[in-house]
Amino acid sequence: MSEPQAIYLSDYQPPAYQVTRTELTFELDPHATRVRARLHLERHEDQGQGEALVLNGEHLTTLELAIDGQTLKDDEYRIENERLTIFRVPERFVLDTEVEIDPAANTALEGLYVSGSMFCTQCEPEGFRRITWYPDRPDVMATFETTIIGDREQLPVMLSNGNPVEWGELPDGRHFVTWQDPHPKPSYLFALVAGELEKLEDRFTTMSGREVTLQLWVEARNTDKTEWAMESLKRAMRWDEQAYGREYDLDRFMIVAVDDFNMGAMENKGLNIFNSAAVLANPATTTDAAFQRIDTIVAHEYFHNWSGNRVTCRDWFQLALKEGFTVFRDQSYTEDTQSAAVARIQNVAMLRTAQFAEDAGPTAHPVRPDHFIEISNFYTLTIYEKGAEVVRMLRNLVGPETFRRGSDRYFERFDGQAVRVEDFVATMAEVSGLDLDQFMRWYSQAGTPQLSVQGEYDATARQYHLTIAQHTPATPGQPDKQPLHIPVRMGLLGPDGASLELVVNGESHGTDTVLALQQERQSWTFEQLDVAPVPSLLRGFSAPVQLDYNWSRDDLALLMRFDEDGFNRWDGGQRLALAALEDMMVAWRANESMKLDGRLIEAWRGLLNSPTDDRAVLAEMLRLPTEAWIAEQQSVVDVDAIHAAREAAISQLADNLYVDFERTYHANQLDAPYAPTPEQIAARSLKNVALGYMVATGEREPLMLAQAQFEADHNMTDVRAALTLLAHSDASELGDPAIRAFGERWAHDPLVMDQWFATQVTRPQQDVMERLKFLMEHQAFSLKNPNRVRALIGTFVNSNRVNFHRIDGEGYRLLADVVIELNQLNPEIAARMVTPLTRFRRFDEQRQRLMRAELERIRQEPLSRNLYEVVAKALA
Ligand code: PHE
Ligand code: ZN
Question: Which atom of ligand 1 is nearest to the CA of 262?
Answer without folding.
Answer: 10
